[in-house]
Design goal:
mainly alpha; 2 domains; 12 helices; disordered N terminus; DUF1624 domain-containing protein
Length: 272
């Protein structure tokens, strides 16, 4: 009986891999455009001389901008968790994402040694994919109600642990031995003096991926999934879907291109 259920699950998964969920592409594309806009402003703040750069730096420190930045990462992580079951070879995918994240860290250490990217969104997506591969083995047959409760619990843990990197969680001081080195930093407990311009540690952000994964498990095989296959032929939707389908390569290239353009403009105006 178990082998039959497993075979049926594999057949359903294979069918799902051939279905295009256009709405997910659209959401991912919209998130990527927001990320490009945010990074453009960040580059202007970093590269333009004062007072222009200073004004943009002050703007980037606004609470509303921080919420905007966090919502972009939240969307990528949640969608990635939701789409985990659509792909194959998660161990390879996760390892590739970790390696891409490492490459970005190396490049930013060279270009911007005072403000590098350490443990950015690609890194947590990679480690999250590897962790989901372990969870997937025992969670795929859970009842829908259990999956939905797990999704809610994951979001509650994310909310509760969101400020763990500061050393204080809801007014409770965490032990200082947690904040020791790069290993604890990738977990979510950075040591004193740790700097990263794009910091997405495993705690709490993996729980966003976990929530997306369990939300998918709770709606898998229901009519709700049909909503995600809706396809619009207007230009904007087509454009967003195209970006969403090529999100990884665009993510890897966009910052290099933006940085180069802003650097050229600064040189042309100020000769710097």
């Amino acid at each position: 009986m178990h082998s039959r259920l497993l075979l049926l699950h594999r057949q359903v998964t294979h069918m799902q891999q051939r279905i295009r969920y256009h709405v997910i592409d659209w959401i991912r594309g919209l998130a990527l455009i927001n990320m490009i806009a945010y990074h453009t402003l960040w580059d202007i703040a970093q590269l333009f001389p004062t007072p222009v750069g200073y004004n943009y730096t002050q703007f980037m420190l606004e609470p509303s901008v921080h919420v905007w930045q966090q919502s972009i990462g939240f969307t990528f992580l949640f969608v990635s968790g939701f789409c985990f079951c659509f792909g194959s070879k998660p161990l390879i995918r996760g390892t590739q994402l970790v390696l891409w994240g490492t490459l970005i860290s190396i490049v930013t250490f060279i270009v911007l040694p005072n403000d590098p990217v350490r443990f950015g969104v690609l890194t947590v997506l990679g480690f999250g994919t590897l962790l989901l591969a372990l969870i997937h083995a025992w969670s795929r047959m859970l009842p829908r109600i259990v999956s939905m409760c797990a999704a809610v619990l994951s979001l509650l843990i994310f909310t509760f642990m969101h400020d763990a990197q500061t050393g204080v969680v809801w007014g409770v001081q965490l032990p200082q031995w947690l904040y020791h080195d790069s290993f604890t930093a990738v977990l979510g407990f950075p040591p004193s003096g740790f700097i990263s311009s794009d910091y997405y540690p495993i705690i709490p952000f993996f729980f966003v991926m976990l929530a997306g994964y369990f939300v998918y498990r709770s709606v898998e095989g229901t009519r709700a999934m049909a909503i995600l296959t809706v396809h619009s032929r207007d230009f904007l939707s087509q454009f967003l879907e195209w970006i969403g389908r090529h999100s990884l390569i665009i993510y890897l290239l966009h910052q290099v291109i933006i940085f180069a353009i802003v650097r050229i403009i600064v040189f042309a105006i100020y000769g710097l």
